Amino acid sequence: MKTRLIRKDKSLRRKRRVAYKIGYGSTRPRLFVFRSNKYIYAQILDNSGRTITGISSKVVEAASDVKGKTDISFKTGKALAQKAKEKNITEVVFNRGSYKYHGRVKALADGARDGGLKF
Fold first, then answer.
1. Whole-Å CA distances, 70 to 13, 44, 47, 76, 97
2. pLDDT, tens digit, for every residue of 40-86?
3. β-bridge partners, 54
4. Where are the alpha helices (DSSP H) in 1-119?
5. How many angstroms separate the CA atoms of 94 and 4, rounded?
6. What is the dotted CATH code of the domain comprising 28-115?
7. Most buried residue, 55, 63, 82, 94, by CB count within 10 Å?
């Protein structure tokens, strides 16, 4: 009899795989992404786990007339890159966690790249 993976197992395996690939021994800060059904959050953490800067799509959504969650995610990534530039951060490691690199997560990454972050 075949055993089927449930969704939680798949996301846990994806999260561990991503963590292994980005390597927590890296000297560059990490860009973490959290995606809820309504908003998307991103923050840059240093190696000790201290938050350097962060942003939420709530802020971007209130400040602009952009419609659609994907467009708002792109603007959020761009705004995060601007905040990172103010703190003299140019290179980060992208940690998407258990989320697939697709849709809003990809849009946030593209916005951060467009804003000047390298990863």
1. 26, 20, 29, 10, 18
2. 999 999 988 899 999 999 998 777 777 899 999 999 999 999 999 99
3. 43
4. 7-22, 57-63, 69-86, 104-115
5. 30
6. 3.30.420.100
7. 55
